[in-house]
Specification:
Arc Repressor Mutant, subunit A; alpha/beta; 13% strand; 6 strands; elongated
Length: 218
């Protein structure tokens, strides 16, 4: 009998219980080996340089580096690496950016128990894997609509920085100083955010930032 090849998995999530749950699911299956666990972005990139892994199971909202940056840099460190995003965020902006940065699959945490093994098997076989709600978002984006209402334009890295600082309560002048840009540029970024996200007040932008994990809830 031909032995089953072992898929080596690196887990990157700042929640100990999530990592433990993922490890338990995988170790109950033949052909999987969890070769490491890390709790932040910097540690994930460092581990990839020293620890051979076939799949990185990656949360997008961790300390120590933006999850999208970790995704992009992980592919640079190990071009053959498969990256399965495991997150609670199903928003179009998150999904589209993860796909652009090279995610091989996008799995929501609330379906991980049922779908994690199938998702890893799919990406290892060269296929993409998306949770059903994520598939619906992708279909809507391809059709140019989201929720049947409007097209969602992805926000840029700079707009994300401005959004985070707006949500933290900084003034236009303080944001301009922090990012070394003009106040007019800050106002332009804020206007673009409101237009793209369909949110027309600072309070709504703040709620969005909290919901998407850019800042902690007060």
């Amino acid at each position: 009998m031909t032995p089953v090849a072992t898929t080596r998995v690196l887990l990157a999530d700042d929640h100990t219980l999530v990592r433990a749950g993922v490890r338990r699911i995988l170790e109950a299956q033949a052909g999987f080996a969890v070769v490491g666990e890390v709790a932040d972005g910097h540690a994930a990139l460092a581990a990839l340089k020293t620890q051979p892994a076939d799949v990185l199971v990656l949360d997008l909202t961790m300390p120590g580096g933006d999850g999208f940056d970790v995704l992009r840099r992980a592919k640079t460190i190990r071009p053959e690496l498969k990256v399965l995003v495991l997150t609670m965020h199903a928003s179009p902006e998150y999904v589209s950016r993860a796909v652009r940065e090279g995610a091989d699959g996008y799995l929501l945490k609330d379906s991980a128990v049922q779908d994690l093994v199938a998702a890893i098997q799919a990406v290892m076989a060269g296929r993409e894997y998306y949770s059903p709600p994520v598939q619906r978002e992708l279909s809507a984006m391809v059709r140019g609509t989201t929720g049947g209402k409007r097209r969602i334009e992805p926000i840029t890295d700079r707009e994300r920085e401005v959004l985070k600082l707006v949500a933290e309560g900084l003034s236009t002048k303080e944001i301009a100083t922090r990012l070394d840009i003009s106040t007019r540029t800050v106002e332009t970024h804020r206007a673009n955010l409101m237009r793209k996200l369909g949110l027309h007040s600072v309070a709504r932008l703040t709620q969005y930032a909290i919901r998407e994990g850019l800042i902690d809830a007060p």
